[in-house]
Amino acid sequence: MRRDVFQAIADPIRRDIIELLAEEPKTVNAIAEQFEVSRPAISKHLKILNECGLIEIDKKGRERYCQIQPRELIPAFVWLDQYKALWEEKLDAFEKYVMELKAKTKNNE
Asked: In terms of CATH architecture, what is 5-69?
């Protein structure tokens, strides 16, 4: 079954794995050591990331090395970017509201 990038980044552990691999390629064992979940659970997460095309797994001798494929994250960035202006506008309005409340509270003291 081919999964999509949104399924991959929906899980916080998979997002953490992506972040780890953004630094440099790592072995499956090196990745598993970073988490407090079982090695089979990490292998399942890696399988999903691989199926989505977000990582590539290369076998070298006994070790399996995982490397990020960042171009596969582009659809998620494009989708999120369309909401960036909306959220910035809402956050700016919220900040203005909080500042007005602070000013009213200060004037009533």
From this structure: Orthogonal Bundle (1.10)
